[in-house]
Amino acid sequence: MASQSGDGAQKTVVLAYSGGLDTSCILVWLREQGYQVVAYLANIGQDEDFTAAKQKAEKLGAIKAAIDNKASFISHGATGKGNDQVRFELGVAALAPNIKTLAPWRMPSFYNRFQGRADLFAYAQQNGIPLPVTPKKPWSMDANLLHISYESGVLEKPSTVAPRDLYQMTSDPESAPDKPHLLTIHFKEGIPVRVMDHTEIKEITDPYKMLEHLNLVGGRHGVGRIDIVENRFVGLKSRGVYECPGGEILYQTHLDLETYTLDREVFHIKEELAVKLAKLAYNGFWFSPEGQYVFGCVKASQKDVTGTVHCKLYKGSVHILSRDAPVGLYNEQLVSMDVQGDYEPMDAEGFIKINGIRLRESHRTAHS
Amino acid sequence: MASQSGDGAQKTVVLAYSGGLDTSCILVWLREQGYQVVAYLANIGQDEDFTAAKQKAEKLGAIKAAIDNKASFISHGATGKGNDQVRFELGVAALAPNIKTLAPWRMPSFYNRFQGRADLFAYAQQNGIPLPVTPKKPWSMDANLLHISYESGVLEKPSTVAPRDLYQMTSDPESAPDKPHLLTIHFKEGIPVRVMDHTEIKEITDPYKMLEHLNLVGGRHGVGRIDIVENRFVGLKSRGVYECPGGEILYQTHLDLETYTLDREVFHIKEELAVKLAKLAYNGFWFSPEGQYVFGCVKASQKDVTGTVHCKLYKGSVHILSRDAPVGLYNEQLVSMDVQGDYEPMDAEGFIKINGIRLRESHRTAHS
Amino acid sequence: MASQSGDGAQKTVVLAYSGGLDTSCILVWLREQGYQVVAYLANIGQDEDFTAAKQKAEKLGAIKAAIDNKASFISHGATGKGNDQVRFELGVAALAPNIKTLAPWRMPSFYNRFQGRADLFAYAQQNGIPLPVTPKKPWSMDANLLHISYESGVLEKPSTVAPRDLYQMTSDPESAPDKPHLLTIHFKEGIPVRVMDHTEIKEITDPYKMLEHLNLVGGRHGVGRIDIVENRFVGLKSRGVYECPGGEILYQTHLDLETYTLDREVFHIKEELAVKLAKLAYNGFWFSPEGQYVFGCVKASQKDVTGTVHCKLYKGSVHILSRDAPVGLYNEQLVSMDVQGDYEPMDAEGFIKINGIRLRESHRTAHS
Amino acid sequence: MASQSGDGAQKTVVLAYSGGLDTSCILVWLREQGYQVVAYLANIGQDEDFTAAKQKAEKLGAIKAAIDNKASFISHGATGKGNDQVRFELGVAALAPNIKTLAPWRMPSFYNRFQGRADLFAYAQQNGIPLPVTPKKPWSMDANLLHISYESGVLEKPSTVAPRDLYQMTSDPESAPDKPHLLTIHFKEGIPVRVMDHTEIKEITDPYKMLEHLNLVGGRHGVGRIDIVENRFVGLKSRGVYECPGGEILYQTHLDLETYTLDREVFHIKEELAVKLAKLAYNGFWFSPEGQYVFGCVKASQKDVTGTVHCKLYKGSVHILSRDAPVGLYNEQLVSMDVQGDYEPMDAEGFIKINGIRLRESHRTAHS
User: Fold this and answer.
1) Minimal Cα–Cα distance from B201 to chain C, Å?
2) What value does the mean pLDDT take over residues A152-174?
């Protein structure tokens, strides 16, 4: 959904629009400042009425005109204390560095004018912005295909238990089904390529539908809730609650297949790189030189991560049951306690003794 | 429990004795080789009949005499393919490098004589070693206060689901109580110092009893089961099943308190060190110079990890509910979306722009 | 040297004062803005006429009054593109977070007024600031006991060779003495405690005088020059030329003693931590929680780094000649090719074979 | 050079042959044990009379027959305490795991028979092995195109200065030319592709000849000597002296170009990987899964390392003078102190303040 109004090429701004009160006010306010506004609402899997949002944006002055000139500004409704602003703007810096960002919640002319919710309401009424019909929840929320995150409001006190009615993507484990759900996930070179749902007797191979289905059944069984105090890139500690049912299932099964199929040392090196990649993504450096470099290295580690993992969803957990791989480093004969295989027990003697040399030497030094 | 027999000082061996068939045969076999044997059975929290084991060892020729001479040998019944032999012997190398190890399962004179279970049975009958009254389980098992591990036998096939009757320390989550269990764990400088059990209305502060109680209630709720293919230090991949209910509860709550109380960067550095320490411990290098060094560094990171974590045990999971700390880096006012606190939103602008410089430059280079 | 004028407690600013044109103009400009200025010139080993600088500062309106009230501001003459501003201000944030910083080169009211050197000259003449008698060098320079750094101006072009007359602390290796200089450095727990100068037949134990002497003789022999393109914390690449003669001698000799006295694995872990510490120091995070934490860990690694290193300075290099330690992990008998020592050659067989298991398995997989 | 004798397919052994006393005795001894021996002497750039070695091997019973059957054994003369045996045999494990290694210096039947040099001499005389005409140097030595390493004998005492007549590849810096040597090295994607020798007015592009030339001129100027106590993989500390003139020049110039052309964070990540790769290569894991994986990651980092570095060789050192690159991240305008470029000084304010938040918070906590 993209819309636009006005005529000054220099002053076209693409606004990341949600259809909510904040970005609606920002839309009108930007027009007030002389910008023509293109409202952009991306479908990233969130549960949203896209048509209603489109109509609302048009009503507020966007979308009416064809896009006949390039935008030189981009705008969003993220606050000045969060990670979203950073991710948003570092992405722009990496991909389209000539575009300037307008972040109203960091602009005194905006945040001094809208000091509280009452100011937004008044402004909305003056400008024909429909007021929200449901009362604002006492927390904020962000959703996409992979997860919902909740923060602020009542969650700001880390010693308070998150409210039961917060969660939208997952059941409370205590009210989840009493019968477990059985799944097999197939991976090819680290990528999930097939979900076998043994409970619903169903096979899915479309990537979007796989994640959607895992969200559905994982959510039903209360899988993937996290309550954590995280460390934002801007240096603040913040309490967040997350729901990520499908992601949790994929994470657990993928990790199991990695330990099964990857060489020990490759796995350890890959783990360090993956931790780096996670930090880079969290801090908004996905499109940075180092983000792309580390991503390439992690990807290169996955060429042997092919196989299946069998798991059970039950009352909030993913339980790994077993795994298999067409070709792999696991060598049943070699490890067997009943068969000697290709392994000389006496070799372990030398292995241990040589590994002990430094320790003996350290003992000698400490006692000399 | 320590016992001894014989008279040649040079030939005294301390045997790590379990009371089972293997180490009983080893005990007799070592005496046959001319060693006087001190059978040593440490109480590390495993479920064991120590009196029976003592009587059995005495019957087989150990313990009768007072310890009147130093041992120069140590012996164990660990196999030549596992991690235990390494941990055992690297510990000796670090702490008492003059003591030599006899590892019968790596000595051809032993393993060629005892090629199967039948040979052990025959030897036991010839030497008055009581035969096990229960049939051998089709897996091997190791237990201490912290955990039980299972491996080999039917578990050697990673595509086979572990048998239901394997587990001794934890209930099957599916038959665990329907009512969750509420706990608060108090930590002081990273160490658990108090367990408040809100369900049983009980407070425990003795370290041993805390872990015992967490094992009990964690086990009752099916917490702490892991099924994994691990990478042994000797280079083999091996499938292991673990039960670690109390440890799981302490791990999850401690981690939560760390993210809450530690500075972000200190936490990240400590995490890298902790991964190193875990590998060192797994591979038997706890008493090595690097093991002791890293342990000291990790310990130094814990001085601010003081506070409480509130959690819920339910059907196999530990759910973190909330946390609190007397003094801490969490600053509710600073992070609040409703209060500006000591935070200037405009500063984020410069922060992001400066962080974006490298990204802009990289874009420039890629497009020049 | 600390001086102060005026009376408004709220408006007292401590200025990091160098006595040069820039900070003299800043001094006057700050007074113009209504601040009372305390000029502070720290003696960190740079070559400076402290008395002249004091008189100059007094002449410009500082130092006259006793310090009878606390300063709430701090100011410096660092530019907005460099690392110095960051180190300065992160130090303040860590140690005295209530003090605010005034950085004129980042304040439009200052930098718009002083757009070039001509503006500073005019302002100086108007305000009785003595003009520099020597023409400005076409580069900037920063000095302390440990080093001199040069950057900007003609150095900004990395393809240009640095001018021969740039260097103030070191001779050109080509005109350095033809006779080498012999030194022995004694370390105790990682700290240099004695310098034996065999060429000048001199022994020094005072820390300050040791470094001063190593700078002198190292500089004479052209030791410690570096020409590098570095990566500033603010994201810029910048060409810098450094002289660090005493530091280079201490670095090389200390490193040699570390590899000699430290356990291999402790050394590797310490190296990773030292790289982290260097980055933290470079970026201004010395007084941060992580800076202090890592410093403590690095320090803990040094308890066995005691001994002496013998080296030769010659035409720009430090050559390590030999080393000794009272007690150490080096075991001449163990490593000797002529003596078997406490080492069983056959143990290496098992060590290698076990280390080769993963490699054999990888070969098997790749060819199956 | 490959030679062979005998007829039993099962018993063919390829011996890594140097032509010296040790491997000549091993050759004869292996034949005595019933093996047919193929003597293999690889040309890896060492200074060697290959024809003489071939004749000697033939005289001792190798090379006479055509290679008409596959070898199932490999043998070498490396000692049981060193790294060479490990590298040799891990290479075999990775590339040809079915081939078995015979390491006589680890076989009691060999090392008990040849307990000293006198035993080797006697055996040589009995078996027509020519005795060395020059007395054995009191150290051992290993050479290839890249370096010469020296160890053992008089070097085993780390407090003894290495003898002046040890070095074969480099001049003593004190007797090196008084006139420096000027070079420019061209790199393409991290690989040296051209050496411009400005002193000899010469251009070289052939890889082998480039390294040969850099060894020659670097050696002439005394570049690349290292005297170090290293940590062998088998756990021993060992003193080694190295000469690596061409490698030192390439290392220094390549590093300079990397800091110039690589993004800061990519460089740091690559550095960590390069340290890993160096350890893996040193310990013999080049052909391991992790060796190949890390090598691929390091290689991927080099795509932008294209440009030239200008340097000076003088009296033992490589001095970097300047560098240039066709396209690069270095932005003269951006970093210039005289031009604002695309950089807003005020942004640094926010950058520093946000970076200081954690430090302020830490101060608050420590003082609460």
Assistant:
1) 39
2) 96
For D82, which residue in chain A has the nearest alpha carbon? A354
**Residues D43-61: tens digit of each pLDDT:** 998 888 889 988 988 888 8
Share of chain C above pLDDT 90, in %: 79
Structural domains for chain A? 9-126 (3.40.50.620), 141-262+304-324 (3.90.1260.10), 336-366 (no CATH)
C350:A355 CB<8 A: no
Q: For residue A366, count other CB atoms closer than 10 A to its CB.
A: 11
Query: Do residue B90 and residue A343 have CB atoms under 8 angstroms apart?
Result: no
Band of pLDDT at residue C9, cut at 50, 70 and 90:
low
CA angle D95, D101, D104 (to 5 degrees): 150
Residues of chain D found within 8 Å of residue A265, distances taken between Cβ atoms: 285, 288-290
> What is the least distance, in Å, from the CA of B273 to any CA of chain A?
12
Tell which residue, D200, D214, D229, D220, has the closest CA to residue D309: D214
Share of chain C above pLDDT 70, in %: 96
Q: Kindly indicate the confidence band of residue C352, based on its pLDDT and cuts at 50, 70 and 90.
A: very high
Give how far B233 is from chain A: nearest CA, Å. Answer: 9
pLDDT of residue B261: 96
Cβ-Cβ contacts under 8 Å, B300 against chain C: 293, 296-297, 300
Residue of C nearest to B262 (CA): C289
Answer for the pair D10, D72: CB distance below 8 angstroms, yes or no.
yes
Closest CA to B40 of B20, B16, B57, B62: B16
B26-60 pLDDT per residue, tens: 999 999 999 999 999 989 988 888 899 889 888 98
D312 strand-pairing partners: D182, D319
Confidence of residue C7 (pLDDT cuts 50, 70, 90): very low
Q: What tokens were used for B19? A: 């009371």
Ranges in chain D, pLDDT < 70: 1-10, 64-69
CB-closest option in D336, D349, D363 to C106: D349
> Does residue A74 surpass a pLDDT of 50?
yes
User: Cβ of C259 and D349 within 8 Å?
Assistant: no
CB contact under 8 A, A235 and D361: yes
Residue B63's region, left for phi above 0, alpha for psi from -120 to 50, else beta, is left
Residues of D in contact with C347 (CB under 8 A): 80
What C65-70 contacts at long range (C-beta under 8 Å, 24+ apart), as own/partner pairs, is C65/C3, C65/C4, C65/C5, C65/C6, C65/C36, C66/C4, C67/C2, C67/C4, C67/C38, C69/C7, C69/C9, C69/C12, C70/C9, C70/C12
pLDDT band, very low/low/confident/very high, at A328 (cuts 50, 70, 90): confident
pLDDT of B107-126, one tens digit each? 999 999 998 889 999 999 99
Contacts of D329 in chain B (CB under 8 A): 358, 361-362, 365
Interface test with D, best of C102, C335, C346 (most D CBs within 10 A): C335
The DSSP secondary-structure symbol of C316 reads T
Distance between CA atoms of residues C228 and C242, nearest Å: 8
Residue B8's pLDDT is what?
46
Q: What is the ipTM of this complex?
A: 0.93
Q: How far is C121 from chain D (nearest CA, A)?
A: 16
Give the list of residues 6+ apart from residue B259 with CB closer than 8 angstroms, or none: A228, A229, A230, A231, B267
Q: Give contacts of C293 with chain B, Cβ < 8 Å.
A: 266, 269-270, 300-301
What mean pLDDT, rounded, does chain B reach?
92
Inter-chain residue contact A300 with D301, CB threshold 8 Å: no
A340 to chain B: closest CA residue: B81
